[in-house]
Amino acid sequence: MFSWNAPQFDYEPYPVCYANNFFSEVDYLTLAQSYPETELFQHMPTLGEKYSLSERNNSENYHRFLTQEPLWGKLHAFVKSERFIDDTLAFLKDANIDLGLKRHRYNGRLGASRASLLSRIKGRQELSARFEFSAMSGQGGNIRPHTDSPNKLITFVISMNAPGEWNEAWGGGTQVCLPKDRTKIYNHVNRYMDFEDVDVIKSYGFVANQCLLFIKTYNSWHQVTPINAPPGAPLRKTLTINIEQLI
């Protein structure tokens, strides 16, 4: 469904990988042109200023959309497959990012709760992948500085605006940041901060068909500062994929 074309890694202050041309040109155009309409999303103002469509947010619209759009449905099925998680862990391990995860599998003869207990005893984790459409307004859309919830392990942020639809000068890129008060760097529980309270360490521009992958750590601070696009500009559209540990 996609490929890592010349991936580049930054390892400090936490691992980040980025790659362009993540999907084939034909698939990317199809996905970008069939991206869900705004009215299907749920507004999420407490996170900054964004809209979400996922199995947790407006799930009925989400599942209906995936059944109506064949390529999106195929991509969703791949992300939900065992292969996707295994391939991602192997890809990271090859880049010297070994998360030490041994993914648990159990057959249907074991109840889920018993299987979960056995997996913990054996030092294995139950992992799942979550697939979310996320959009921000061109006039002030943002996500405040945070590190992600403790059960998140890996995050993919894939740009989904059509080529030529977004001007990098408007913003919308993801920024690695750290608190100005360095005593607050440790943030395993995902407290949010304000933009003026952090230093920007590195910025990754918002480019069509780009994938940005980062690892959840105690200091994986990141943000999207308020976007400044002209009236009538499109939404900043992304596909966000999280690999999570089930709790």
Structure report:
The structure is a single chain. The chain has a single domain (5-245), classed as Sandwich (Jelly Rolls). It is built from 5 helices and 12 strands. It has helices at 25-33, 59-68, 70-79, 82-94, 112-121, and strands at 5-10, 16-20, 42-44, 48-53, 127-136, 142-146, 152-159, 174-179, 198-204, 211-215, 222-224, 236-245. Helix 2 packs across helix 3 (70-79). The chain is globular. Residues 106-110 and 115-123 have low confidence and may be disordered.
Task: List strands and helices in order, with pairings.
Layout: E1 5-10, E2 16-20, H1 25-33, E3 42-44, E4 48-53, H2 59-68, H3 70-79, H4 82-94, H5 112-121, E5 127-136, E6 142-146, E7 152-159, E8 174-179, E9 198-204, E10 211-215, E11 222-224, E12 236-245
Antiparallel strand pairs: 1-2, 2-10, 3-4, 4-5, 4-6, 5-12, 6-11, 7-10, 7-12, 8-9, 8-11
Helix pairs in contact: 2-3
